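just leaving the lab so this will be short. what follows is a protein written twice so to speak, once as letters and once as structure tokens for the fold. can you read through it and tell me how you think this chain folds. thanks a lot i owe you, the record is right below.

___
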Amino acid sequence: MALACVLYFQFDNESSGYISSGQFWTLLQKHGSELDPHKLDVLLALAHSNAEGKICYQDVLNLLCNKRSNSFRRAILQGNRHLCSKTLMEESSLDLTQRLIRHVAYETLPREIDRKWFYDNYTGCPPPWFMITVTIVEVAIFVYYGLLLDRFVLQVTHSQYLKKNPLVYHPQLRAQTWRYLSYMFMHAGIEHLGMNVALQLLVGVPLEMVHGALKVGFVYVAGVLAGSLAVSVTDMTAPLVGSSGGVYAIVSAHLANIVMNWSGMNCQFKLLRMSFALICMSLEFGRAVWLRFYPSSYAPCPHPSFVAHLGGVVVGITLGVVILRNFEQRLQDQSVWWIFLSSFVLFLIFAVLWNIFAFSMAGLRLPPPP
């Protein structure tokens, strides 16, 4: 804060709120040693990106107060960053918690300046509660129905699996709107639950630490909702269970960001990690396809649909990519965000109208309610 006061009183003689870039460099040379090295990097990024020849006092004040400014956002977008200090990976004498935060930064963020910003400002409060809470609820409900049905493997093949179940999405019960989301708490078996839980904890928790519960939760829930609506449009006679729509949304968004920022992602074994995630997703998707066409134990209703996986992937590579690509930046200022969000809303409206009119107009014969 001392640098900001010096900047304002010493050089801003006209009280305009601005000083020249040359004066700003002079201040950095005189007082830069008083700042945290990471904050100095941020100020240098601001100085190098400025094309107008002047620096705003409020921008500097915001940066020193750990707030992202519009000028700094422009510096990030322009990619004109000159980091004066060593990278986070080169820093030593870190305790276990600091190493974990650094690891998460390198696993999820492609730019060194963003990694330092996250490392400096992450406090662990609030913790990544969304993904952990969802996982606990999913496991608890699965264990409850496992004990109730006395089956844990391929639980969905039990003849009583759908009976009086208030959570599963079923085409005959589509008027009960909560089922378009609540189905994510039910799973086809321990193999289904295990894959989803592993992916959402390994990928979702680090993403929530960096981007927050609001952004990651939005991508997850949007994937779940898109999955159930996609099933209601394309696989109209099938029920639906599992959180795969949400899991595939966050994982596909993360993998797409790694691919688009390949050179900047300095995480270890990134190719191996991507291959592992893709193999797990492919195996789980293959299991879902096989189960969908396996003879049903509760005819004439088929086994759960696999289309929700595809709906989650579409959400991930559209909305998810935009959200996770913009660390601490305003989505409202980006046209691509509004394009994808508008497309998602239009799909929701179309799917709702489809569920209201298409089933009766097509004269489709649906399986009886469970």
